[in-house]
């Protein structure tokens, strides 16, 4: 059987490795960090939003983005770079900001979300849910603007429509925010979990898989290619590792690696922040997964901790913490859920979400017949990981996909 190296030990790379091993490939994983899941998978929002997907590119977003950029606590912060990739990505993003394009992308992501939900159910057999604090929490999207709320509530199949009083009664963590809300929309079947713990648990099971050939720890410097095929991966220490096939699933690092063999990936790192605080016995932490729609802030109870994720910073591959942004987010969290956790013990994390202009990931082949992609999941890597891995394994085996992959493949 052919040997495959998966480049990237985050949630997308690990699920790819698992599905490929299950498909009969001999699989290794190349990871630059000492521990898997320590990059963008480490401190993400923890929400598994299979039925609630909202591509960033949509009609009206450019105007909103201009307003947000001048707000210290706004959802978006932009810093110009001396990098043409930033401007190419922005130009393509603006081209996707149309209602008809958004509808098509949303439909595709919903299909991928359902496939991912089914995939996670399959994994329950080998990775017990309690290993990564999985909970079927349901999802509540709350709105502050009456107009925005009514528009969302008027869409077919939106979900259960809750008044501000309903929101506070059914999710007591929102009691302080009730006067600020126009209403909420609730959907069951959505979950929360610890992505990092999931990565560790899946890696443990991978090590026991008869087709798994182990983890290779090292930083990939470049891909090597000859006569239409990738021939190896050169590491920072000069070593070269090789296999029959290669899968790029290395988050934002994928774009630099693909560039070394002339494959351009339309990825940009959207930096996001998360706050994590311990929940005490007398705290009123949310039981439901909550999204504050206008502020683009996510709240999830993961085990005995409150996880809050928010913000998009377009500042390149800069992982430093912007104190003004963090302070603003912290104030918003304390205003919305003042009694949800021990905010005196707050920890801050930032990660780079590898996003495409359309918000749809890129899965499948490249012009090199042995180089494959599973990249560009943005903030929904955990949500889409299992479905993306399933599609990738099927494509590599030449199987027909369960739905059209138009919009989910690389345009050469």
Structure in words:
This protein has helices at 11-22, 61-68, 84-96, 99-123, 146-153, 164-170, 195-207, 253-259, 323-336, 381-396; strands at 3-7, 26-31, 47-48, 76-78, 139-143, 160-162, 183-187, 191-192, 212-217, 220-226, 229-235, 240-241, 245-248, 268-278, 289-292, 297-302, 305-314, 347-355, 362-365, 371-375. Helix content is 30%, strand content 26%. The protein has a domain at 57-97 and 135-191 and 268-355: D-Amino Acid Oxidase, subunit A, domain 2 (D-Amino Acid Oxidase, Chain A, domain 2), CATH 3.30.9. With 412 residues, the protein is an alpha/beta fold. It is an enzyme of class 1 (oxidoreductase). Its EC number is 1.4.99.-. InterPro entries: FAD-dep_OxRdtase, FAD/NAD-bd_sf. Residues 4-393 form the FAD dependent oxidoreductase domain.
